[in-house]
Amino acid sequence: MNEDTWAPHVTVAAIVERGGRFLLVEEHTPAGLRLNQPAGHLEAGETLVEAVVRETLEETAHAFTPEALVGVYMTHFGKPGESGATYLRFTYSGSVADQPEARALDPDIVRTLWMSADELRAASERHRTPLVMKCIDDYLAGVRVPLEFVHVHAVGPRSGHSGGPQG
Q1: Which residues contact 131 (CB under 8 A, 6 or more apart)?
Q2: Residue 159: which pLDDT band, with cuts at 50, 70 and 90?
Q3: Is pLDDT of 74 > 70?
Q4: d(C-alpha 23, C-alpha 17), whole Å
Q5: Does this model's pTM top 0.90?
Q6: What distance in Å separates the CA atoms of residue 21 and residue 73, rounded to the nearest whole number?
Q7: How confident is the model at residue 155, as a pLDDT?
Q8: I need a labelling partner for 142 at 20 to 30 A (CA). Which of 10, 66, 131, 158 fits?
C-alpha cells in the first residue's frame, strides 16, 4: 500500500451499564458471530459524539446519551512488515432510554443483550476484538474524561479568515 494513501479507520463505541449489566450486540462478522459494544465507523461530516449516538441507535434501537469519554484505543491488524489496518476507537460511556425505539437493527446485528462483566469475561473467545473487555475494564476502573476533551472545529464559511488551519 502506498504510504501517501494510508489512513487509520476511526471508530466509536458505546458503553451502557444498567444494574451491573452492559448493553452489547451480537453481530455477524467474517469470523462468525461475535460480541461487541454498539460500535461503528465515523462517517464524513460527523463529530465523534454524533457517530456514537447514530451507531448505538442503528445497532440497538436505543437512543444513546453520551456522558463521558472512557478512552481512545489504537489497534493494528496485519502481519509484520505489512501495512494492515489500524483502528482508532473512541469509546464513550452514557445512558439509554428504558425502552428501545420501534425500528429495525443494522443487518449484521443478530440481537442486543445485557451481560455482566463476569459473563462477558467468560465469553472472551466470542469478543469482536480484545478492546471489548479492555473498554469495560477501564470503565469499571472509573476512567472518565469530559466530553469537552475532544475539540471539534466546525468547518464552514471562512468569514474573514485566510490561510489554512492554525494547528
Answers
A1: 13, 73, 75, 89, 91
A2: very low
A3: yes
A4: 7
A5: no
A6: 22
A7: 66
A8: 10
Helix, strand, or coil (residue 52): helix
pLDDT > 70? residue 125: yes
Please report, for the chain, the start and end positions of each structural domain, with discontinuous segments joined by +: 3-149
DSSP state of 35: E
Q: Find the range with the poorest average confidence among 49-53, 90-94, 151-155, 162-166.
A: 162-166
Dihedral sign, Cα of residue 108, residue 113, residue 116, residue 122: negative
Q: What is the DSSP letter of 5?
A: G
Residue 60 CB contacts under 8 Å (≥ 6 apart), including other chains: 23, 25, 38, 96, 100, 105, 109, 112
Around 95, how many Cα atoms within 13 Å sit in the side-chain half-sphere?
5
Is residue 55 within 8 Å of 38, Cβ to Cβ? yes
- The stretch 40-64 carries a mean pLDDT of 96
Q: What is the chain's mean pLDDT, rounded?
A: 89
CATH topology of domain 3-149: Nucleoside Triphosphate Pyrophosphohydrolase (3.90.79)
Partnered with residue 22 across adjacent β-strands are 17, 115
Q: Which residues contact 41 (CB under 8 A, 6 or more apart)?
A: 9, 10, 11, 12, 51
Single out the residue of 73, 87, 88, 93 nearest to residue 141, CA to CA.
93
Coil vs helix vs strand at 100:
coil
